[in-house]
Every structure is written in structure tokens, then in C-alpha cells.
Amino acid sequence: MSKARLKSLQEEAQAAVKKAREIAEKAQAEGREMTADEGGEYQTAMTKGGELLEQIKAVKRDLEVLEKADEMAAAIGLPSDDPVHDTIARMRAKSLGLQIVDSPQFKAAMAPFKGGHVPERSAFSTAPIDVKGLFVGGGTGGDSSAGAFVVPEQTGIVEMLGRKELKIRDLISLRRTASDTVEYVAQTSHTNAAAPVPEATTSASPTSNPETGAVVLPTGGGYKPEGSWAFERKTAVVKTIAEWVPATKRALADVAALEGLINDELRADIAEAEEGQVLNGDGSGENLTGINNWSGVQTQTYATDLITTVRKAITKARTIGRVAPNAIVVNPIVAEAIDLLKDAENRFYYGGPFAFGPRTMWGLPVVESETQPVPTALVGDFSKAVLWDREQTTVTVTDSHADFFIRNMVAILAEERVAFAVTRPTAFVKVATNLT
């Protein structure tokens, strides 16, 4: 271990600590806390600095031992040509190459070659050579070997398992509410009596049928036809979607990015649960009633092929639901079936594997959602499904759960409060795809 090595380690450690200090000072100067990325970089730099410090201490100990041995040799009056001085000098200068050529394995491999010259075409190999550090007693894997200075690199990468791509919130109508119950009005019937009306030719007043009591309008009276509308007041109740996980205070303190990671993952869990409720909630207990389970949603049985069936569903949405459908929601398995559809000449309907642009069918975007059940597609005007946010997703941390306070643990809770309703059920059509 040389003084040059010590200087190199010191410079590396100083650079690491300087980087950490600059990150912290920048956040402090801007009057804010460090971001998750800054926290990760800060922690990495400080960890590297600590590891280098341990290496510096080890190098210093080695140099002190050599210096003391040198001083002792000089103090007892050993002449400069004494082998002890040579041993100390060899230990001080001994490099990886010197350890190899001095090893019994290397010398045994060189023995057949007189004069130390190995012919160009001769096979040359050695038995495994145990290369040790300055203090050989610890072995190659111990703290006194070179292995003590090989430390894992902290990359800062945290690879999660992956998540569903969420699409449904982007399709439906989103509103805010400050109440726990949302009311809306839905029309239940509509009689259109509009018709051309001639000018009045008489001033006679209406009469009453003596038998039925019905009003009888005089001929030529110019009376306008009366239409009929009926409405119903409906309610949607706010429900809570929540999840919590435990964590130790030490873990949150030691890993700067951990709390942010947990927060993001909890929020994503809530979003996944919300999409599941909007599409498939069964309405029982605290569940929302999703589109696929909403009373009054239309259905379309399988007819000839997938393309024909979807077109018939679009017709139902237009003629019965009285809407212009804006999307077809399918599971990725159904989307794959659409992509692989071919005509009688074995040509892909949708351009094949090299087609560019969004996938559409009959002019409507085909939206993939893993939450949509595989056997059916969902065609409709998704603006007729409304989600009211009472409380958007929030994350809170507390140690007041159970005995967490005395155990230095915290509960991290994410929750949202929402209400949901399909304001016009006939705007949606569940389509049988004949797939399993």
C-alpha cells in the first residue's frame, strides 16, 4: 500500500462528500426539501464517501505498520544491507505482478523453461494463484485481503414488478363534489308530439266530452300538440378506496427514496382499484356499480364475426342509446384478435405488424384495458359515465396505529373518496366476442 494509493483514495472521498454537500446546499439555498432524485444522489455520494473512508483507514494502518517496522530495524542498528530492510522494501513495493511471479504456482510453471524464456508456440498455464493483500493471514475473502476493498456499487435502481396501463379515467367524465351524496336527474321517458300546425280558422273554445270528461278541441282551432317528458332524481353515494402498508422509521430514514417510492406505489394501487370499480364493481357493500354491471346497459350477441358484431353494437348505441359512441374498450387478448383479423386472401385487415397510427374499428378508437373482462368488448359514449372526486388520492403517515409508536414503525395510508354513476345506461353496449 503506497502513499500514492492513500492520496488517490482521499481525493475520491473528498469529491464524493463535496458532491453530497453541493446537493444539500442547493436545496437549502432554494428554500425547499431535496427531491427524490436529489435525495438518492445525496445518499449515494455519502455512502461512497463512507466506504472510501474505511479504505483510507485501512491503508493508513498498513503504512503505519511498515513505518514502525522500518523504524524498529533502524533503532536496533541493523545495517542497511540487512535482509530485514529488503523484506520491508519488498512488502512496501510489492504489486500484483510481483505477487504472481513470486508465487510457487508461477515458478512451477516456469521450471521447464531454462533461462526464463517461454517459446512462442509453447503452451503455458499455471495452477490457480492465490493473490493476497499486505497481510496474508486473513485469506482472499477476509477483511485483511484485497476483498475488503471491493465494495458493491449502489446504483439507485429499484425495479418494480410492473403495472397495468390505466386508460378508463381518461375516457369517462370527471367532476368534483364537496358532498357525500351526489344527485343527478335522468330522463325516463320522452314523447315527441311535434307536428305541423295549420292556422286557426275558428275562435270556438274547447268543449268537454260528457261521457268521458275528456277535453275536445274544436276543428280548425290551431291548437299545438303537447309533448310529454318524465324525469327521475337519482343519487350516487361517495365510497372510499384505500390501502395501507407498514414501514419502519429506520428504513424511511436510511433510504431517502423509499418513502416517495411507497407513496407512488400506493397511489398506483388506488388507481388500479378505481379502474376495476368503474368497469366491474358489483355494487355490493362499499363497492361502486361499474359499467359492465349497471342496470340498463345494452348487450349485443355474437353475429358472424367480430367486425360485424361490433358494428351492430354501434348501431344500438346510436339508435337506442341516442349517442355517438367514442370508444371500444377491450382486453389485450381481444385487441390481439382484432390485430390478427385477415380477409379471404390472408391479408391483415388493419395493416399488419408494420402499420402505424392508433388502432381503430369503424372509426372508433380501440382502447386496451386489462381490467375489461376477456369475453366482452364495451362500446359506448364514455362521457355518460361520471366519476365525482370527493377527495382525490392522498397519502398520510402515522405511528398511532396499534403499538407502532413503541416499535418505531409507521403506517403509510393512501385513500380516495369517489362517487360513480352511469347517467345514461343505454349509451353502452356489452359486445360478445366469441373469445375465451
Automatic annotation (TrEMBL):
Residues 200-211 have a biased composition (Polar residues). Residues 3-37 form a coiled coil. The lineage of its organism: Bacteria, Bacillati, Actinomycetota, Actinomycetes, Mycobacteriales. It comes from the Bacteria. It comes from Rhodococcus pyridinivorans AK37. Gene3D superfamilies: hypothetical protein PF0899 domain, Major capsid protein gp5. It is found in: Virion. Residues 147-431 form the Phage capsid-like C-terminal domain. SUPFAM superfamilies: Major capsid protein gp5. Its main location: virion. The keyword Nucleus does not apply. Residues 190-211 are annotated as: Disordered. Keywords: Coiled coil. This is Putative phage head.
